[in-house]
Design a protein that fits this description.
heterodimer; A: 234 residues; mainly alpha; Methane Monooxygenase Hydroxylase, Chain G, domain 1; 7 helices; 80% helix; elongated; B: 272 residues; alpha/beta; Rossmann fold; 6-stranded mixed sheet; 4-stranded antiparallel sheet; 11 helices; 25% strand; binds adenosine-5'-triphosphate; binds magnesium ion; PhoU (chain A); transport (chain A); phosphate transport (chain A)
């Protein structure tokens, strides 16, 4: 892409990109740490996630401010306009991912380590891994300007949904087997639900990023299947 | 968005474009030469009725030249030669049978610098209707003056001093006076060449609002160097570069997702 005649305009846009990348890195780190803290009953780590959320909010505020100033100063057009509006939206989704990670971290302590069956932690661990990959990839594809990779990435969200349904079923069986598992399993269920929602925010980010990069909307996705909705109101 | 809402939006868009799809002026294969030098190359452009068409592009790309073709203002430049065809309601305006004075009444023009005649406000607006014999009595002329000034959004500011010189008005008022002068002969098309470049933001906002109101009754073609202005006032935007029309389309698309690389570079401020 050619440079702007006014070079500080390029610097302003690069600054937005850098903030998105930072927020993406932080969102990924928080998601990883929160699940880890929950599965290992690591209170100190959980605490760190909670305090990271403050950093995340500050970054979002900074991004919003930079974006608004850029609009006022430069009145961006075409791809620049899309980049600025897209950055504001992507930052909002990244901030929500931070919130969800924080919510997971807050459950640590409520779940006793011993009460968590190994196969169950394994399932959630796998799901967390899938979500984490998505969070890291979406920002990378955006920064590296790879719209086609974003299409594939969005389609992979379905796998997370399928996995979530499996975790949900598994948890139900444990709870039926032994009512003493109910407390722990409820917290884990909550954790799984939050991971699934992080996946949804990644999907939003992918859609926004695709629009920024190409100027067209991602084709509408098939309605997604969430069997758990039929059983409980989520 | 659900399917119903989407269908409704689609419907509204279709209705809007059906209402405004009529082509008022059509340029086909237009070339313009100043002596040996060619300034426009093979330009095809449709100007739609009751829409504002913005012409954008870097300095010297031929915007003013094209605008002047639309009411044969180029005839006044000796070395200028125009080939190709331009029609108004399907009629060739370069046909030898066309009365150029009448053409310029139907296709009026407002210039970059407000240029009122050194006469009273009243006489500035009365000039056109007089030479075209549009009023048969003084009271009829008075009525034309009043509606023209009203449509130009100037009436309230000048109604008590119609006999004062037009040159005594502020720049913004002078430009609206020139718009009133253009409107007074009931044109069908109004051409504006950077009408706001000599105005402050408030006067500019007034003129822009006026342009939007005028669209009800007139077809407007405006040359502007402000991308934001083009985005605010026009429905269609045409991008010129080095004498060629490189892209034309709905204004919203031109400023969010233009197709041509040169348009992208120009609207985002990346031109070398
Ligand atoms: N009267 C003239 N005699 C000779 N050449 C002319 C004349 N008017 C315009 N040109 C040339 O034709 C080309 C197009 O000029 P034009 O005034 O149409 O550009 P423009 O797009 O309106 O530019 P600007 O944005 O600076 O007003 C330029 O190269 C200019 O030098
Ligand atoms: Mg010009």
């Amino acid at each position: 892409m050619a440079q702007h005649i006014v070079t500080s305009f390029d610097e302003d846009l690069e600054h937005l990109d850098r903030l998105i990348r930072d927020m993406g890195d932080l969102a990924a780190a928080m998601t990883k740490a929160a699940t880890r803290a929950l599965l290992h009953a690591d209170n100190a780590l959980a605490q760190r996630v909670v305090s990271n959320d403050v950093v995340m909010d500050a970054r979002q505020t900074e991004l919003d401010k930079s974006a608004v100033t850029l609009i006022a100063k430069r009145q961006p057009m075409a791809q620049d306009l899309r980049a600025v509006v897209g950055a504001i939206r992507m930052a909002a989704d990244l901030e929500r991912i931070g919130d969800l990670a924080k919510n997971i971290a807050k459950r640590v302590g409520a779940v006793g380590k011993s009460a968590t069956p190994h196969s169950l932690t394994h399932s959630i661990d796998t799901m967390a891994g899938m979500v984490l990959d998505q969070v890291q990839a979406v920002v990378r594809h955006y920064v590296e300007r790879q719209p086609n990779a974003l299409v594939e990435l969005r389609d992979r969200d379905e796998k997370i949904d399928v996995h979530y349904t499996a975790v949900f079923r598994e948890l139900l069986t444990y709870m039926m087997e032994d009512p003493r598992n109910i407390t722990a399993c409820t917290h884990l269920l909550f954790c799984a639900k939050n991971l699934e929602r992080i996946g949804d925010h990644v999907t939003n980010i992918a859609e926004n990023a695709y629009y920024v990069l190409t100027g067209s909307q991602l084709p509408v996705q098939r309605p997604k299947l969430d069997e758990t909705q039929m059983t409980v109101d989520s | 968005m659900n399917m119903l809402a989407e269908a409704a939006v689609e419907d509204a868009i279709n209705r809007d474009s059906a209402r405004t799809e009529t082509v008022k002026m059509q340029a086909s294969g237009v070339n313009v030469f100043y002596g040996e030098k060619q300034a426009l190359f093979d330009v095809d452009l449709a100007v739609r009725k009751n829409q504002v068409t913005a012409l954008i592009g870097p300095s010297g790309c031929g915007k003013s030249t094209f605008l002047r073709c639309l009411n044969r203002m180029n005839d006044t430049i000796d070395i200028c030669r125009v080939t190709g065809s331009i029609t108004l309601d399907g009629e060739d305006i370069y046909d030898p049978k066309i009365d150029v004075v009448e053409l310029r009444a139907r296709v009026g023009m407002v210039f970059q610098k407000p240029n009122p005649f050194p006469k009273s406000i009243y006489e500035n607006v009365a000039y056109g209707p007089r030479i075209h014999g549009l009023a048969s009595s003084r009271s009829e002329l008075d009525a034309i003056i009043e509606t023209s000034l009203q449509k130009a959004g100037l009436w309230n500011e000048v109604k008590d001093r119609l006999n004062e010189p037009g040159t005594g008005l502020s720049g913004g008022q002078q430009q609206r006076l020139c718009i009133a002068r253009a409107i007074a002969v009931s044109p069908e098309v109004i051409l504006m060449d950077e009408p706001c470049s000599a105005l402050d933001p408030i006067a500019t906002a007034r003129v822009e609002e006026l342009i939007d109101e005028l669209r009800e009754n007139y077809t407007i073609v405006i040359v502007t160097h402000s991308m934001q202005q083009a985005a605010r006032v026009s429905q269609r935007t045409a991008m010129f570069h080095l004498g060629r029309l490189v892209e034309e389309g709905p204004t919203g698309k031109m400023f969010t997702n233009p197709e041509d690389k040169r348009t992208q570079d120009y609207v985002t401020g990346r031109f070398g």
